[in-house]
């Protein structure tokens, strides 16, 4: 039977990977369309995406460590 901590670790890792792919897709679509939007909006979007990816990875590691310590 799979432990909840291991399951959460895998799910957060998958979420980080999927969000990373979404982030790359978003950047490529913006380059293709050459949208003329505020550059600050793009910078804020990039920082926000990396914070979300980082938090998902950190949470995944915490749950994995919790699984190992059980």
Q: N-to-C SSE series?
A: HH
Low-confidence spans: none
Q: Which radius of gyration do the C-alpha atoms yield?
A: 16 Å
Q: Judging from the principal axes of the Cα atoms, what is the shape?
A: elongated
Give the mean pLDDT.
87
Structural class: mainly alpha
- Tell me the strand percentage band: under 5%
Explained architecture:
- This protein has 70 residues and is mainly alpha-helical.
- Helix content is 87%, strand content 0%.
- The protein contains two helices and no strands.
- The chain has helices at 4-33, 39-69.
- Helix 1 (4-33) packs antiparallel against helix 2 (39-69).
- The longest helix is centred in the last third of the chain and has 31 residues, at 39-69.
- The protein starts with a helix and ends with a helix.
Q: Can you lay out the helices and strands and say which pair or pack?
A:
Blueprint: H1 4-33, H2 39-69
Helix pairs in contact: 1-2
Can you give me a brief rundown of this structure?
With 70 residues, the chain is mainly α. The protein has helices at residues 4-33, 39-69. Helices cover 87% and strands 0% of the residues.
């Amino acid at each position: 039977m799979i432990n909840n901590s291991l399951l959460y670790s895998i799910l957060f890792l998958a979420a980080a990977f999927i969000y990373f792919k979404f982030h790359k897709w978003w950047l490529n679509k913006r380059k293709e369309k050459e949208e003329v939007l505020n550059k600050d909006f793009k910078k804020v979007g990039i920082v926000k995406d990396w914070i979300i990816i980082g938090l998902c990875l950190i949470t995944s590691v915490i749950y994995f460590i919790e699984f190992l310590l059980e």
